[in-house]
Amino acid sequence: MRAIFHADRKWGIGKGNDLMFSLPKDMKFFRETTSGKVVVMGRNTLRSFPGGKPLKNRVNFVLSPEDIAEDVITVHNLGELFEAIKVYPPDDVFVIGGASVYRTLIPYCTEVLVTKVDADGGAEVFVPDLDRDASFECVYESEPEEDNGYTIRFCTYKKKCP
């Protein structure tokens, strides 16, 4: 299982149940990376999508104590989630938010794809700082590039002992 997100300098990922930055290159990377794959999210992340609808061209799992909608697969706990996703190749399963789902599932991820934004987005929700997490190491960092007025870098973190 892998995770994917963009984060500001303080490892913030959102505010007001939305992204902090409009980053077309990052969105393209997200779309291309997760299309045709499995995405795992919490109910607030699902609600943040246009119309509260699941992402197209993906299998959408929502981790929630209550059933959400008929067009997603609701799993009520980690046991149900792990049982449900075991039929998919692990590298095809992406955790996509929100903050509590990242905090819960990143320890189970073998890889985390982070688009680092060189800015302070005034975040209200944060993910663990993988640069300070001894169980992960940054194995790739792209050259900085501009995306809608922000400097970003695409980074890949690998779990040291999966």
Structure description:
The chain has a single domain (2-159), classed as 3-Layer(aba) Sandwich (Dihydrofolate Reductase, subunit A), CATH 3.40.430.10. It has helices at residues 24-34, 43-48, 78-85, 99-105, and strands at 2-7, 12-14, 38-42, 59-63, 73-75, 93-97, 111-117, 125-126, 136-141, 145-147, 150-159. Strands 1, 3, 4, 5, 6, 7, 9, 10 and 11 form a 9-stranded mixed beta sheet that branches. The protein is α/β, with parallel strands linked by helices and 162 residues long. Strand 3 (38-42), helix 2 (43-48) and strand 4 form a beta-alpha-beta unit. It is built from 4 helices and 11 strands, in the order E-E-H-E-H-E-E-H-E-H-E-E-E-E-E.
Care to give the gist of this entry?
By secondary structure, the chain is α/β, with parallel strands linked by helices.
Give the secondary structure arrangement, pairings included.
Blueprint: E1 2-7, E2 12-14, H1 24-34, E3 38-42, H2 43-48, E4 59-63, E5 73-75, H3 78-85, E6 93-97, H4 99-105, E7 111-117, E8 125-126, E9 136-141, E10 145-147, E11 150-159
Parallel strand pairs: 1-6, 1-7, 3-4, 3-6, 4-5
Antiparallel strand pairs: 2-8, 7-11, 9-11, 10-11
Number of distinct beta strands: 11
Name of the CATH superfamily? Dihydrofolate Reductase, subunit A
Low-pLDDT stretches are none
The CATH topology is: Dihydrofolate Reductase, subunit A
**Number of domains as seen in the coordinates:** 1
Q: What's the CATH architecture?
A: 3-Layer(aba) Sandwich
Helix content: 10-25%
Rounded to an integer in angstroms, the radius of gyration calculated over CA atoms is 15 Å
